Amino acid sequence: MVAALLRLRFRVLANTLGRNSLQLAAVVIGGISTLLLLVFVLGVLLLASTQAPEATQVVVVVGGSVVVLGWLVVPLMFDGVDRTLDPVKLARFPLRTSQLMVAMFLVGVAWIPGGATVLAALGTGLAWSSHPASAALAVVTGLVGVATCIVGSRLTTTVAGALLGGRGAVRVGIAALIVAAIALPIASTVLRDAPSGGRALFAAITSVIEGLGWSPFGAVWSIPGRVALGDLSGAALASVIALATLAVLVLLWRAALGLSLRVRGDGPARAISGGRLGPLGVFPSTPTGAIAARSLIYWFRDARLTRQLILIPVLPALILVWWMLIGIDAITFVAGPIVATLLPLSVFAGLSYDGTAFAAEVAAGVRGLHDRLGRAAALLLIAGPAVLLVQVVIAVIIGRVGDLPALLALALGTLLVSVGVVSVSSARFVVPVPRAGRNPFSSQPGAATVSIVGSYAVTAVTGLLLLPVAALAIVSLVIGSPLLGWLSLAVSLILGAAIAVGGVVLGGRILDASGPAVLARLRLIRA
Amino acid sequence: MSPVGNAIELRGLTKRFGGTAAVDDLSLAVPQGSFYGLVGPNGAGKTTTLSMATGLLRPDAGEAFIEGVDVWRHPLEAKRLIGNLADGVDLYDRLTGEQLITFSGQLFGLDRAVIAERVADLVRLLDLEGAAGRLVSDYSAGMTKKIALAAALVHSPRVLVLDEPFESVDPVSAANIRDILDGFVKGGGTVIVSSHSMDLVQRMCDHVAIVAAGRVLLAGTVDDVRGDGDLETRFLELVGGRRSGESPAWLLRS
């Protein structure tokens, strides 16, 4: 049965890639870059083997912990986890949960990221090549480590999907709270020790690394090193922690799967009569107004978009933490611009989120310009106030209210340029995204690469166009001249607005020429 | 360009997917004021044909005219004339039913007051009163079909192109929809529906075209096409593929 599931998964994979050459190219590019990364990692491990065991231990434990954390978190940030074996789709077959778990686990191993992780984990044996016993042990602990990674990622995506599977900002809020609950204690530990500076900071980092070796993330990777250093009782304790971690993750995953396998019947439908049009009742009754209102509603009702809004509070908060650690004001200047880049970037292929529903616009003969204008307006209505708020709050916290004009010039200029660029890119690019209402963390093979490569390209163009817009603001921040600050605000608003308008017009032309072709591609990826 | 009197005229429409032709040099004329049925087996190319006729899918070759307007040369003018219920496309289902109809009306630039009045009418006529404020993603298949139909009607088109409008729709609503369509035709409008229900097409339509493998096998008034028998018999004769009463031996028989 497990073999049948695995065959099914690779059959689906081959069929998907066979009908979409862009996705195939993305898989190849992803594979090559993963291979390069793997070679680099193995090189580092080989280098580490020539160092003292204490240093080798630091490299292996820190690296291993980062890999485990990465598997837990990255699938939540990018569309990275394959859900061909969606438990909900398989619910009508006579399958044991354990069979499904084995199949899903093997699917996780037998694909590019999983395979690379297996090889890298086995590569920890290289790092201990001068300690034969530890090297042999590292092969075993490496495999346990990989299992921890894959089971952990399955667990987080299942849970996060269940939380976000429906709609509504409330559930996204819950997810953000969970992230904060994990991140804040770590940050506060580091922060408490940080202000004492230099030596104390070094001590704090050492203690964090020491702690990592005992944490669920790092314990498994620390075992060979403890043996090499002669700390056998420590190795035994770390083994207990590692195995307990894996066992708990497996049990939690099983429970989460069990919950999602249960077919949820529809409750009795509540009768809700109309009368609440929301933004559709407020915006002008024109194609542009309708599209702006619909986009705005989707930003808050479509989990795939709503999860992007988590960025608004989280990223500036992280940047402030760094600022407190390092104490350089300049790093906080980028908080607003980063939010101003990332929110538009999340819709760089925005039509993909519409899916075939975009047919409504094609069938109505909406002009490309009106479509672009409406979407840009909704984006500005959300990102504009968010960027303003972030930048003002940060200026107040770091005590540089005087530089506010230049800071706003930087952030608002970035926002306008980004809006212009994504207005063009989203008229052209369609990437595979999960359909509305599905687990927003599910994805199709290669989708992560397509969206990552695409967003790199979009970011590069944005950066290039941003240079003239932001130059004056940066100069005025360096010199600290208020007059120059106001001047840069005016310049960046004018230039930025020109680029935004240009992008909207160009994107509209592209869409006019290619509307039905875009719809045809949207049909193709509607898997 | 197009002879006056035809609401829809398709000439030599062709669409290939990969190597195979889904629609193969298909021509069809739908007279103004007719209630036209398009029938054919699964995969006959009905949806592809209607997509090309309504400006959703660019044909590889051939032309499509709506009331004499070339769909692919003057798409904006042509699309104002069409009320389009496409099959196999999603709706903006994170909107409520009422919001979805309003959105469609606004895409055609209708006045807010006009839209509000029409939304109220459509919701009442299609038995969606209790569901108007619910998200379309929570609708059943039949309700989804009805709300899509409402969205296709709201801008008061002259030609209705409806792909499988009765699929999953309950009998009461289906009868109500037929009343709406009958009234529309009586008022001078033109309707083309694709359907698998021969019975329904025979009772409802005045014209019918039988399509298979991307070509029109037979077209004309329903009476001409069915001859002495009924439409289903004629259809099965033309299209073939009947296996006489076979059923797998291992499947339970009671």
Structure overview:
The complex is a heterodimer of chains A (527) and B (254). Chain A is mostly helical and 527 residues long. Chain A has 2 domains: 260 residues, no CATH class; 243 residues, no CATH class. Chain A is 78% helix and 1% strand. A two-stranded parallel sheet of chain A has the order 1-2. Chain A is globular and about 70 Å long. Chain B is an alpha/beta fold. Chain B has a domain of 167 residues: Rossmann fold. Helices cover 35% and strands 26% of the residues of chain B. Chain B is built from 9 helices and 10 strands. In chain B, the strands form 2 sheets. A 6-stranded mixed β-sheet of chain B has the order 6-7-8-3-9-10, with helices on both faces. Chain B has a 4-stranded antiparallel β-sheet with strand order 2-1-4-5. In chain B, strand 9 and strand 10 form a beta hairpin. At the A-B interface, helix 12, helix 18 and helix 22 of A face helix 2, helix 3 and helix 4 of B.
Features:
heterodimer, A: 527 residues, mainly alpha, 2 domains, 2 strands, 1% strand, globular, B: alpha/beta, Rossmann fold, six-stranded mixed sheet, four-stranded antiparallel sheet
Summed up:
Chain A has 527 residues and is mainly α.
**And the CATH topology of the domain at 6-90 and 158-239 in chain B?**
Rossmann fold
Beta-strand residue fraction of chain A = under 5%
The percent range for helix content of chain A is over 70%
**Total count of helical runs of at least 4 residues of chain A:** 22
| Helix share, percent of chain B | 25-40%
Largest sheet of chain B: 6 strands, mixed
Low-confidence stretches of chain A: 166-171
The CATH architecture of the domain at 6-90 and 158-239 in chain B: 3-Layer(aba) Sandwich
Strand neighbour order, sheet with most strands of chain A = 1-2
Shape of chain A: globular
The mean pLDDT of chain A is 81
Q: How much is the average pLDDT of chain B?
A: 89
Topology, number of strands of chain A: 2
Distance between the termini of chain A: 24 Å
Question: Would you tell me the structural class of the helices and strands of chain B?
Answer: alpha/beta
In quaternary terms, these chains amount to heterodimer
Q: What's the end-to-end separation of chain B, in Å?
A: 61 Å
Cα radius of gyration of chain A in angstroms: 25 Å
